[in-house]
């Protein structure tokens, strides 16, 4: 019987998962390397969509110290956490919400104490490694900066040119119409339509202070359609940080989840994702 690979991958979400990476990985605090290793692991705790780095504890250039009092908003690990957790934990979920058994530690360097920035999983396959809070450090893979979270080797972003007619509407107002979109296909996300700014009613939109980061595409700046109550942060544009995403630099993309998009005259269903109703989300 044939096996659908996505079912295999998605079926592992309830499990603690890991994958060795051949890249040189460095974590810096205050410009100083806390670890510099060629033996890092990518680790996904149960229900986590995105990975974090685990590094050999013997290669840490810092001390691990027992943490202070448990924060009130971070429950202890246990069955209740697993039952209360949503079906998946997206990148907005803080590092402190652990869904695997293990111990938390503060990371203590010569000039800083990073509270609960390390986690030692109890799983024997990860023995000798500690997981580090990505947001507590600056990270390099080889000599390139990594932002947002480590890149997942099983996650792809493909961009294809298209001549289909794409129209974007909100509350019966046409915000964009084009035959020159770039279609971005990303694992576990709906197709995104990146539209040349000349085909977008930028005169109806205002720049937002909101920014998000994506390890595959760069830093996104947001646009709002202010006349509509539901028009806040509905579109974004990426900077030119990553060569991998050069095809979408300077183009405008709208949330399929919150606007009406038609492709060659066919209205697309609004997909359900973590960003369907949450303006604070990242594309």
Would you kindly provide a written description of the structure presented here, covering whatever features stand out?
The C terminus is likely disordered. 5% of the residues lie in helices and 38% in strands. It is mainly beta and 283 residues long. It is built from 2 helices and 22 strands.
The pLDDT mean sits at 90
Placed side by side, the strands forming the largest sheet appear as: 1-4-5-9-8-7-6
H and E order: HEEEEEEHEEEEEEEEEEEEEEEE
What percent strand?
A: 35-45%
Distance between the termini: 36 Å
pLDDT < 50 stretches:
72-85, 279-283
Number of strands: 22
Oligomer type? single chain
Structural class: mainly beta
Rounded radius of gyration (Å): 21 Å
- Name the shape in a single word: elongated
User: What is the overall number of helices?
Assistant: 2
Helix content: under 10%
What characterizes the major β-sheet?
7 strands, antiparallel
SSE layout and pairings?
Blueprint: H1 5-11, E1 17-20, E2 25-29, E3 32-37, E4 41-44, E5 52-56, E6 63-65, H2 79-84, E7 102-108, E8 113-121, E9 129-132, E10 138-141, E11 144-146, E12 157-161, E13 166-170, E14 173-178, E15 182-186, E16 192-195, E17 206-214, E18 218-224, E19 235-238, E20 252-254, E21 260-263, E22 266-267
Antiparallel strand pairs: 1-4, 2-3, 2-10, 4-5, 5-9, 6-7, 7-8, 8-9, 10-11, 12-15, 13-14, 13-21, 15-16, 16-20, 17-18, 18-19, 19-20, 21-22
Primary descriptors:
283 residues; 7-stranded antiparallel beta sheet; 2 helices; 22 strands
